[in-house]
Write a structure and sequence with these properties.
It is built from 14 helices and no strands. It has about 375 residues and is an all-alpha fold. Bound molecules: iron/sulfur cluster (2 copies). Keywords: Membrane, Transmembrane, Transmembrane helix.
């Protein structure tokens, strides 16, 4: 991890926090900080990615601005996290994408939809593109299954490889080692429950000084909604590939039920989290990362909403256009996956597993 301005500022603030330790019960960051006297750039990258941005320590801090110490851990860690995503990015030059993340994610989304739409309009007979289709294989009359699967599969596999290399660099930089099954299980439970957004039980300061579990619940809606949509796509692939049952499927079929529930969860989560960002106290928020966060939430919202609208209108003449728009947003999501705020899940997961390892080592020391 490079010595960026955010790294230097985080080091200064951690020295103050290490002397104070008032926030020890708030989240995993402060106990992990207390295990260290000095902070390498890798240590600070680990602590920043362990931070869930609940803002509890900012509202509790007697040294927060306008105090001369200017301690603002969530703001500084948010900037440091962004630096770490850029630093560990693979291929490395792509790390520059994080500097103007909001603009680039928005541009990729717009271009993916426009290029797919214009390409299909130029290539497809209008009678087919704007026609009504029903029964097995209706979607593939607009875009052949092989083309759809090849584009989605290749971009998804590349995204997984790029994120895997990034997380491997992060893991090495923050101490390396091989985690045993128990810390992996503990870290996984922390990821699935978002325990660090619980503020030690009373919730976080989502919007201002009031404690609530709102951000945690909305993040769950988005996360599990995304998981259900992924499950829907996986079941549909098994139906198509192994059973020969071609989409579109009936409303009560497993892929459609999973996709509908997942899509609704994603829309609720993305809408709520966007609203929270708009109305939240700006004090602990890092303005330089906001553009990328809004752009990703908007992209996830569009992926889910266009999927739901396609479901509702798939038997009409609008199906062709809606299918291409939906696939355009899905393609954009896969393309930006390793170079957007989406990577926070992978780095935060690795940081939580390292934290579970450290806690075990500290107990046995
Ligand atoms: S954030 Fe403030 S109150 Fe909390 S440990 Fe650091 S200095 Fe102390
Ligand atoms: S913002 Fe929340 S998660 Fe991050 S260090 Fe402060 S209390 Fe912990």
């Amino acid at each position: 991890m490079r010595e960026t301005e955010a790294v230097g500022e985080a080091r200064r603030q951690m020295a103050v926090c290490n002397a104070c330790r008032y926030c020890e019960g708030y989240c995993a960051v402060f106990p992990a900080m207390a295990l260290r006297r000095d902070f390498s750039a890798g240590d600070l990258s680990y602590l920043a990615n362990l931070c869930h941005g609940c803002k509890g320590c900012y509202h509790a801090c007697q040294y927060a601005p306008p105090h001369a110490f200017g301690v603002n851990v969530p703001e500084t860690f948010a900037r440091l996290r962004q630096d770490s995503y850029a630093d560990y990015a693979w291929p490395q030059p792509m790390g520059a994408v994080f500097q103007r993340n909001g603009t680039i994610v928005s541009l990729v989304a717009a271009l993916s939809v426009i290029v797919l739409l214009l390409g299909t309009m130029a290539w497809k007979d209008p009678a087919v593109f704007y026609g009504q289709h029903s029964g097995p294989g209706a979607f593939y009359r607009i875009i052949p299954w092989g083309l759809m699967a090849a584009i989605a599969g290749l971009s998804f596999v590349f995204a997984l490889v790029a994120m895997g290399v990034g997380v491997a660099k992060f893991w090495k930089d923050t101490g390396g080692g091989s985690p045993a099954p128990a810390p992996i299980a503990e870290g996984t439970i922390d990821i699935l429950t978002l325990a660090n957004l619980g503020g030690g039980g009373h919730g976080c300061n989502d919007i201002g000084e009031r404690f609530s579990q709102g951000k945690r619940h909305l993040h769950h809606a988005l996360f599990y909604g995304f998981g259900l949509c992924f499950a829907a796509t996986s079941v549909a692939t098994i139906y198509d590939h192994f059973l020969g049952w071609q989409a579109p499927y009936g409303f009560w079929s497993l892929p459609v039920l999973l996709g509908t529930l997942g899509g609704i969860g994603m829309v609720i989560g993305a809408t709520g989290l966007t609203w929270m960002k708009i109305v939240a106290d700006p004090g602990p928020i890092a303005k330089s990362v906001l553009g990328g966060e809004y752009a990703l939430l908007m992209l996830l919202w569009m992926v889910a909403m266009t999927g739901l609208v396609l479901l509702g209108l798939r038997h009409t003449g609008a199906m062709g256009v809606l299918l291409v728009i939906h696939l355009g947003f899905v393609l954009a999501f896969f393309l930006v996956l390793p170079y957007s705020k989406m990577v926070h899940g992978a780095y935060r997961g690795a940081a939580l597993i390292r934290n579970a390892m450290e806690k075990r080592q500290a107990k046995t020391a």
